[in-house]
Design goal:
By secondary structure, the chain is mainly beta. It has helices spanning about 35-45, 345-350, 360-375, and strands at about 55-65, 80-95, 95-110, 120-130, 135-150, 165-180, 185-195, 205-215, 220-235, 240-255, 260-270, 275-290, 295-305, 305-315, 320-330, 390-405, 410-420, 440-455, 455-470, 475-490, 495-510, 515-529. About 5% of the residues lie in helices and about 55% in strands.
């Protein structure tokens, strides 16, 4: 039996809408500020009498490297790097309440002092709750993670050194989701978010979004009225603040319950770079949802900056899942892409195992067993966050495929992202002198893992990345390549030992940076409680 289509394509589709993942209708996931105190009071009340699931882990690793500071050829200095990373995960999910918290802190020590010792905190806390059944809901989150302070210096996960910055984001999102009739529904949502960074030169970013949509299901004709407002402001600047208000009316028609086509018209008012201007919106939308395993959604619009689009395609089988996404949109803060949760291997494995394990709890246990027993990386490579202090136009594309066999696991992923200072389509390009965060990034990674025995696995990861500067950084370019081979053994159901070798090289034309090569060997012990 085919699945019915939504009336509209979401205004901002996720990069990988992997089938089989849990997603409540109308959910956008952004926002936080004033209601955080209310959440802190309400959370214990909502969880009263419920059983909390907890898990803890401790990761210890030792790395011997011939270039601890990633210095240029001839200036290398060997070092012994030790890392201790305690982790804890708390979760609870019920009919009207869902809470997860993953907390960790990595303590990194350099025996030969090639880099300064550091502590890298990380937190991923999410709350999903129902205040009034089938009417009022509340989402909130807190995210702390280490990102690259300069995309031209390479990736943080390969070597956490001086190129590391910590970004913290708080979000809260109350919303109303009401089914007025079998065909008519209303969604109203307010999102607040605050993003801060440890870099003094990068201003804090505050974002406010409001969204209201009244929609009628296409049976076969449908319609939707959508009002939205998005405002982004910076703590130390006003000329680069971005405010966008828009009204859209869409008409749609569905064929055979699988295909949907529609037209979009509207008006938007934009305020940035000290100017206010109204512009017309015109666009088309398309959906194809033949069943629970395949989902294609596309939307293209003519807007004040030119042509914008969103495309998301996903497909799964009992052994494979893939996702492709493309979008072009204005962003008030490019670093917000770091908050995307769809770059996680857990989601892809969850989609693959959906048919075999319909129960989400037992399926998550199987996902954890696959990752731990095969020592798989849980994150795929993505574009480095530039943490710009001005509004930009972002063009992004990504593709990921994961294959899970009885003994072999294979994944391949790639991405492309271009960031330019946001301008109107009918205006000349801005002065490139101040556009220090414009860049084009591309990259790909391939991981192969084979279970040699029920307790032992052999894995290899090859990764490539390229960053090209634009505007003020025209001529700056960096290429990074790495190869990592590891052998892991499960000493017990909750203990894993991994040893391996890694080679990494960076070639750059940036005057303030240096090219380097690094070869290292490592041993890591993971204890799960």
């Amino acid at each position: 039996m085919s699945r019915s289509l939504d009336t509209t394509v979401p205004a901002r589709a996720s990069r990988h809408a992997v089938p089989g993942t849990s997603r409540r209708r109308g959910l956008c996931r952004h926002g936080l500020t004033p209601l955080s105190a209310a959440v802190a009071v309400w959370l214990p009340l909502a969880a009263h009498g419920q059983v909390w699931n907890t898990a803890a882990a401790l990761e210890m690793s030792t790395t011997v490297t011939d270039n601890g500071a990633l210095s240029e050829n001839g200036a290398e200095r060997s070092d012994l790097i030790t890392s201790l990373k305690p982790q804890v995960r708390i979760a609870r999910r019920g009919a009207n309440f869902g809470f997860t918290a993953a907390l960790s802190a990595e303590l990194v020590n350099y025996a030969n002092h090639s880099e300064a010792d550091r502590v890298l905190p990380a937190a991923d806390v999410k709350l999903e709750s129902t205040i009034v059944e089938r009417l009022v809901f509340l989402d909130a989150s807190a995210d702390v993670k280490s990102v690259e302070s300069d995309p031209f210096q390479g990736l943080v996960d390969a070597a956490p050194g001086s190129n590391t910055d910590t970004v913290s984001t708080l979000r809260i999102s109350p919303y109303l989701d009401y089914q007025i009739s079998p065909r008519l529904s209303l969604v109203a949502r307010a999102d607040e978010s605050l993003a801060t960074t440890t870099q003094d030169a990068t201003p804090d970013r505050r974002s406010h979004q409001m969204f209201v949509r009244l929609s009628q299901k296409p049976l076969p004709l449908g319609a939707a009225l959508e009002l939205s407002r998005q405002a982004t402001s910076y703590s130390e600047q006003s000329s680069d603040d971005l405010t966008t208000e828009a009204a859209r009316l869409s008409l749609s028609y569905t064929l055979d319950g699988q295909f949907l086509v529609g037209a979009i018209v509207g008006q938007e008012r934009n305020d940035f770079q000290g100017e206010k201007q109204s512009d017309a919106i015109a666009g088309l939308q398309f959906q194809w949802v033949p069943g629970p395993r395949t989902d294609l959604r596309a939307r293209v619009e003519h807007r004040f900056f030119g042509t914008g689009w969103d495309l998301a395609f996903s497909h799964r089988t009992p052994f494979m899942t893939m996702a492709v996404a493309m979008n072009r949109e204005p962003v008030g803060f490019s670093g917000i892409s770091a908050l995307a949760s769809d770059n996680d291997l857990n989601q892809y494995l969850d989609a693959i195992l959906t048919t075999r394990y319909p129960d989400p709890v037992s399926r998550q246990a199987q996902v954890d067993e696959v990752i731990n027993s095969r020592n798989l990386r849980t994150r795929f490579p993505e574009a480095v966050d530039t943490l710009s202090g001005y509004a930009q136009l972002r063009s992004r594309a990504s593709a990921t495929l994961v294959w899970l066999g009885s003994r072999n696991t294979f994944s391949i992923s790639g991405y492309s992202q271009t960031l330019r200072r946001l301008t109107r389509s009918d205006e000349p390009a801005a002065d490139p002198v101040d556009n220090i965060s414009d860049s084009r990034q591309t990259g790909a990674a391939v991981e192969i893992n084979r279970r040699l025995t029920p307790q032992m696995s052999l894995g290899a990861v090859a990764q490539w990345a390229k960053v090209v500067g634009l505007a003020a950084r025209d001529g700056d370019e960096s290429h990074e390549r790495s190869l990592r081979v590891s052998l892991s053994r499960n000493l017990s159901p909750r203990t894993t030992l991994a040893v391996g070798l890694q080679y990494r090289e960076l070639r750059t034309t940036v005057a303030a940076l240096n090219s380097y090569d690094e070869t290292s060997g490592f041993a890591a012990l993971s204890l799960r409680y």
